[in-house]
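Narrative of activities, Objective 1.

The group set out to show that a structural description can be obtained from nothing but a protein's sequence at a throughput compatible with the screening campaign. Below is one input-output pair from the validation batch, recorded exactly as produced.
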Amino acid sequence: MEFQFTQKQIDFRNEVLNFLKTELPSDWPDRMKYWPGGYGSMELNEDPEMVRTAIAFKNKLAEKGWLTISWPKEYGGKQYSYMEQAIYEDLIMYYKAPGMGIATGIAGPSILHFGTEENKKDWIPPIARGEINLWLGYSEPDAGSDLAAMRTTAIEDGDDYIINGQKIWSSAAHLSDYAWLAAKTDPDAKPHKGMSMFIVDNKSPGVTIRPLINILGSHSFNEVFFDNVRVPKRNLIGQKNMGFYYLMLALDFERLMVGIGAFAKMLEELIAYVKTAQRDGRPLSENVQVRQQIAYLATRLEVAYKFFWRTADMLDKGQQPSVEASALKLICTELSRKMADMSMEIMGPYGQLTGPSPWTPIRGMIPKGYLDCISATVGAGSSEIQRNIVAQRGLGLPRK
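Output recorded for this entry:
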């Protein structure tokens, strides 16, 4: 299938593009040390000036209704098509701009799908205004790819639930306001039958957040402990004990947040590098092996874009792109790893440089990407999990 934008979509793309060029500092994409698909290479929280710029920019997005661009108007959205949302997200990520996060990209859409009217009244307005940030409370020390094995419990006690347990690899929990938390509300039920979803205030007594320094030396991850944390019953999202099914839908939303525009930007920078860098007196772009590697990356990126646009098209038609979301996530995160591996190979010893040297290629991004790209193939469901989903749900193959 070949996608062609309508004139309305072209006009909207130009509007977003002009907004980004006007409202962001011209050097913003170069200052954002983010490897496409990675979870550990963001350095925004280490630069106060960039934090202030990001907050101001995000407030402008909220004013335009672009943080919730495809949401219904009665819930603070613009009710644009999913294709227009995809166009918007592609450009946002190309410029590495502050935009859709856990609150607006995962929790908000999930609440709109299965939350109660009370849930929507409590949480949708502040999410739509960009006033609160959430982190994902899924993984545990013994429950990663198999989330049904989680042990964190939420037991009813009067008007509250009392939460006990531990979460790990909690990205940006220390910078967020609330947890989007999965916990067992019926510990004796079968693994898929006794889980529920909650929103938990980070400031609640009994919540302890401890930093986990990642392989890049950055504080992006955390481990979070819940010791008799009281949460009001109205913070239960949807129906009790339906959380596993809600979580599966939320994971589909997360897998659509692949940041595909950032891959296109990184490939452009790599192409520009091989056109100017020389080896044995000749541009790297004339090296046959380098040309083949660049062509491979460009081909895989084109495949990823096809799945990206197809997923948006399916959503506009009212279809559920579960298999396509997994395929898109798989292709993009495997591309993250391939791009890092091939970049290191193309650049040779120079690819290891990170410091402020004239010999450091692409702002020292390549060694960051080489270390960070593995996280891309694990977060939001490992590559192995995505292959299982495509095989079983998409191709009808047996589990064994």
